[in-house]
Amino acid sequence: MNDTDANSEAEDFRVQDSLPVLLNWCTNKGVELHSVEVLSRDGQRGLYAKTDINAGDCIVSIPRQSAIIANIADESPPNFYELGGLSKEFWQSAAWEARLAVVLLDECARGKDSPFYEYIMTLPRDPWCALWAFEKLGGALVSKQLQPYHMHSVAREYRDHVKHTLVLLRKALPKAKHSLVTLERYSWANAICQSRGFGIPVVGTIANHNRFTKGSSPSHFQKRDEVVPIRYALFPGLDMANHSVHCQTSFKYDADADIYRVHTGTNFAAGEQVFLSYGSKSNDDLMFFYSFVEGNNPANTVKLPDFREWILDLGHEYSQKDSDWDAKLEVLQKNHLTQPAKSHVFELDKVPDELMLAVRIAVASNEDLSKLKKDIEEQPDCRHKPVGLNNELDAWHAIDVKCQALLAEAGDFTEDQQESLTKMFSKRPCSAVWRWGEEGSDGEVMYKYERQTVLSVTSDRVRHFARISSAVGRVCTVLMPPSQSLLKADLFTGMDDTETSGVFKFAIPPDDINLTS
Length: 517
Prior knowledge:
- By secondary structure, the chain is an alpha+beta fold.
- It folds into 2 domains: 9-289, set domain protein methyltransferase, domain 1 (Alpha-Beta Complex); 295-472, set domain protein methyltransferase, domain 2.
- Helix content is 42%, strand content 14%.
- The chain has helices spanning 9-28, 88-93, 96-110, 117-122, 130-137, 139-146, 152-171, 183-196, 283-290, 307-317, 322-334, 353-363, 366-378, 389-410, 415-425, 442-472; strands at 32-33, 36-41, 44-49, 58-63, 68-71, 197-200, 206-207, 231-234, 242-243, 249-254, 259-264, 273-276, 292-294, 301-303, 345-347, 431-433, 498-500, 503-505.
- A 5-stranded antiparallel β-sheet has the order 1-4-11-10-7, with no helix packed on it. Strands 2-3-12-9 form a 4-stranded mixed β-sheet, covered by helices on one side. Strands 5-8-6 form a 3-stranded antiparallel β-sheet.
- A hairpin with a 2-residue loop joins strand 2 (36-41) and strand 3 (44-49).
- This is SET domain-containing protein.
- InterPro entries: Rubisco_LSMT_subst-bd (IPR015353), Rubisco_LSMT_subst-bd_sf (IPR036464), SET_dom (IPR001214), SET_dom_sf (IPR046341), SETD3_SETD6_MTase (IPR050600).
- One of its GO terms (molecular function) is protein-lysine N-methyltransferase activity.
């Protein structure tokens, strides 16, 4: 989505030259930009407010026929112009990005006969994302850049997934069509659709749009949006808008006019850049598919490297004999917590339930393990309930140790990097471009900082819970104030409590809350 031209001077010229072509095409096709205009500033396209825009205003209207659409509900492929003969089996099994990529490739193959020809010609020739960087720069260079953040295996996994999909696609087409779907062409179309594809809500409803769905993509990328689209589309004009998680966006399909209308839930002053929200996306998602990173990202996560090995090591460490370990392994496997492909993350706002359950089992004593096993079997809905104080303290300690190890592994920031961070976070919203093949770019520095923030907050959270619980002699968690400052443990001694699913949350008058520095 962010059309950065840092990777080539030729791309810089192409962006500047293609913008009038794109705008003219949009006008001819009935795409209306309401109170916004597309501008290219600092090598990046974006939508900018021509006048003041209020929350609820419609900013873009796009006729359905002016969008490239793939219908996920269809069991058979559409009537392609150039890729006819595609098997029904492939279409039914293909993920949304594969379907939309095939529709895009069919329009590309039509050349000037396609009604989308001018639009396609304005799309970036190099959609810089992890997949495209693999093809252009080589796997070794990309893996080296991602390895410090344990994302290199995810990149390889996704590249293998795309190649496998291409093999299936070619098998599903007549041999005469194979030249139209080479690895380079399909990788390009896939990258375009992943970074620019919008999920279309059910006809007549309003919903926050979703720009990435799990489909058959790597297990690390988890979709957090609640709305499940039934169609995905490339919307010319709208795909010029850049992202901010702090800006609300909604779609509505006007069936009578056969037009999609996009409304903003945010106020913008004249001259300001108008942002959309791509949905709840971690910086892993943004870096991997869009090649930028967002600061103060509430949806950010940190992938746990070698999660399976960590849990198994914990289980050994907290087991006095082999039979104890065998019992833990049985419970872990029965709950599908040690599958090799299973991916877990630390989240900014909580320790995920499944991760916490795995750690509880790994550090459990024989008595606690028996209780955990019984609770899970008899009350599946309560499988995430704490089993006891000592078990919870051990689990929190294990998570704290893991966070500290990952923080130590990342290292400190240099003075230059600290200055760059100060400048980047002075902007609102703040984001930075991740430059593939260039170590230490602003995007990478911000990515590292946001990653360390998740680890530090998680470490502070479990330490805080441990202090409170130790002080009152039972498992209790207290919601953190917005400032993320920690509440003093001695404040809760002797206070009334209310039990909720085995976890104690204290109701404290705001005036009585003391914050530590």
